[in-house]
Amino acid sequence: MSTINSDKLDSRDDAIEHGKCMVSRREFLVYSGVATATTMVAVSLFPGIASAREINARVTGYPRKKIATMSQLKDNKTFDFNYPDNGPNSQAMLIKAGIECGGGVGKQKDIVAFSYMCTHQGGPLMGSYKVTGEHRTVGQCPLHLSTFDIRRHGIIVSGQAYESLPQVLLEVDGDDIYAVGVMGLLFGRTDNLMLG
Ligand code: FES
């Protein structure tokens, strides 16, 4: 039985304290199906004089799906759902971790959601959520023991996987919690939205 690499976890505590994002540039580029991006565009008002202004570009694709209500959640009890569809490898978990998590929503920023499918070879991670002090992990994967840190966008703590666990992006509207996108490629898919 392998153990969680506490050195990795501790070094990332510093990063989260200083507000650094633990997600790679590639991860941010791949996914946000429903997002608003701001870009600077050069606008020429007069010949030879260029100025820049911000415009908002909305990228659509992911469904906005109600998956639970705030009042249903209990600290550290997983809530299962499927997203972005009911197709293969769409199984996911919602968790109120009771401690701030990267990408977390709610008053404490402690509500996050992740795919249940290990990014290595698709091992099922159901029932593997663990609380260890201030750490919140999913794993060990039953196939090759990968473990993922859900406080830090699903990064790998140990094991054979080399991609973070895909994080389902959430929004809260009153008491309702919606899934609105996925950060990361779901195991076994070439496109998270392949089922249309
Ligand atoms: S499938 Fe999960 S570690 Fe290999």
Blueprint of the fold:
Elements (H helix, E strand, L loop, with lengths): L5 H12 L7 H7 L3 E12 L2 E11 L5 E5 L9 E4 L8 E6 L14 E5 L13 E4 L2 E5 L7 E3 L5 E4 L8 E7 L2 E8 L13
Antiparallel strand pairs: 1-2, 3-12, 4-5, 5-6, 6-11, 7-8, 8-9, 9-10, 11-12
Bound molecules: FE2/S2 (inorganic) cluster.
Question: Could you characterize what this model shows?
Answer:
The protein is mainly beta and 196 residues long. The protein has helices spanning 6-17, 25-31; strands at 35-46, 49-59, 65-69, 79-82, 91-96, 111-115, 129-132, 135-139, 147-149, 155-158, 167-173, 176-183. β8 (135-139) and β9 form a beta hairpin. It is globular, with a radius of gyration of 18 Å. The structure holds FE2/S2 (inorganic) cluster (FES). Residues 118, 120-123, 141, 143-146, 159-161 line the site of FE2/S2 (inorganic) cluster.
Give the structural class: mainly beta
The mean pLDDT is 81
Q: Which strand order spans the largest sheet, edge to edge or round the barrel?
A: 3-12-11-6-5-4
Associated small molecules: FE2/S2 (inorganic) cluster
Oligomer: single chain
Q: What is the total tally of β strands?
A: 12
Shape by Cα distribution: globular
Distance between the termini: 40 Å
List the helices and strands in order. HHEEEEEEEEEEEE
Write the CATH fold name.
Rieske Iron-sulfur Protein
**Major sheet description:** 6 strands, antiparallel
Report the top-level CATH class. Answer: Mainly Beta
Helix tally?
Answer: 2
How much of the sequence is in beta strands?
35-45%
Poorly predicted parts: 1-50
The number of domains is 1
CATH superfamily: Rieske [2Fe-2S] iron-sulphur domain
Helix content: under 10%
Rg calc: 18 Å
> Based on the structure given, which CATH architecture is correct?
3-layer Sandwich
